[in-house]
Structures
1.
Amino acid sequence: MTTDTNDPLAGLDTIDWAALGHAYGAADDVPEQLRALCGADEGGREKALIDLYGNIFHQGSRYQASAVAVPFLARMAADASLPGRPEVLGLLASLAIGYDEAHLPGGVDVAGWRRETAEFRAKGPARIRAEYDAWVAEAAGEGERRVRESRREAFDFDDQLRYLETELGVYDAVRAEVPGLRALLDDGDPAVRAATAYLLAWFPEEAAPTLPRLLRLLDREPVPAVLATALVAAGLLGDAELVERLRPFLATEDRAVRWAAATALARLGSAEAGVLAELAAAETDPPEPGAPDIPFHDGDLRGYAAASLTLLAGHYPAEALDAVTTGLAATSGPAAFAITAAALRLAFGPQRPAVIPAFAELGERQQRLLRVLASLDSETWRWVNFLEILAAWGLPQDRPALRRYAGMAAE
């Protein structure tokens, strides 16, 4: 057992990992994966990172072992002698929030998250079951009723409560490390600075000490991709008082920095023409930030721009929809998911219409969007995720059917 407090793995062997769970059962494999993540062998580190994403962050889910691994990962990230620190910071962010697109463009609503978890706990199984019964009774047809009944029968209150409390517990475990990780905004490695800014963006309860550090970074950061990441992070943590501070970055030469400024300003409530222009430009031709990557939205700047354009719908409804539809026409596969959701929201509003009208009754821009959707390739249409987005707005989940609805020729 190590006693070296400078060792990132100090105390690793004092934990009964076999008594902790992850996606595949007992977490007794995690210690060796953490050791490999600190190792000199690049291949070993890559495999360990993949393994950890698979077991303590399995398809976005978090487990008992996830929170216990957090302090070790945080110490690895802070140890300048270790390689691969940006990737470790990225894993910490994933453990904290899951997939970030679920929180964009608004940022983490941690107060709502805490409130919803507490309310679920307080309701108890009987009240939740009654809510499910009412939901089943409201089904529009027999097919929908059967789907809802199936979900009701599969529901387990204790499992769901354990899931909610575990994920919030992992978030709080990462939050506990934030004060020590802020110093990495001054790290000599640009990739570490970017990964740190990205991680800090998800903790609004830590905004008071974090924002000044981010704003100081904006004044001195020479690497455009790091500057862009810090701008987006500041926008996610700040409020409208930050608009004047960030506005000058709309006029910088670097396109990625202008995109980031527009993204931050849209989130802060600014609807000036320059914000619309930069986000619309990113739909047509997303900027290429260079190294390091801008981590937000998995580096998909077009998809993030589409989500941000929904924030401008009240000021530029036609222009925002036009821009996102243009962006959608240039995408394929999973990259189309977020843009499709944004486009449908801009076209039809935040809620599913009670009835989808005849195609001829739709506006010109709505018609254009549906034609673009019906023209997307099979690489997009094969994904259940894409079909579920269409279903949420009551649209056909079959490409030929959508083409018929839109009056397009069969293929």
2.
Amino acid sequence: MATSLRIAQDETADELLSTDPFALLLGMLLDQQFPMERAFAGPAKVKERFGNLDPAQIADADPEAFADLCATPPAVHRYGRSMAGRIQAVAAVVRDEYDGDVTRIWTDASAKEIVTRLKALPGFGDQKARIFAALLGKQLGVQPDGWREAIGPYAEDGSRRSVADVTDETSLQEVRDYKKAAKAQAKAVKATKGS
């Protein structure tokens, strides 16, 4: 991973995301019900407190001690203890199914296989899998044949829908604005249907 990512808007966290693919995957895992840049700063906190981001060591860590590490303020996530369990579950899948090499999820795979493999991870639904696949494609050049079609709208050129489109402070704000507008529209549609 030679690309310099700017998702967390923090030099240390972004450096880790740019150089450690497992950190990037964990950032995506943490990106729910929590500000995007703080979610993607989470892996740096885990590494600082745990000492490394080795999937096998994280998977094998004592669950209670690991939950304490994630919940200690400033917490890794708003729901630090429950997210600690998800981090360990994802680490176990990477250890057991991909021989500890997270990049095997997206190397030597078709675009559809990448999305399927991501959806199979604990804490990853269809939308999160597609967003992460779009991030891989747009910012890291993971673009197997048909990747845009397999991913859908998140892969659109020039869109500002998700973390896949965050490259600086301006694009972060544009993504926030898009999400806010989408939420408002969904709320308006729901209100119309309810009357």
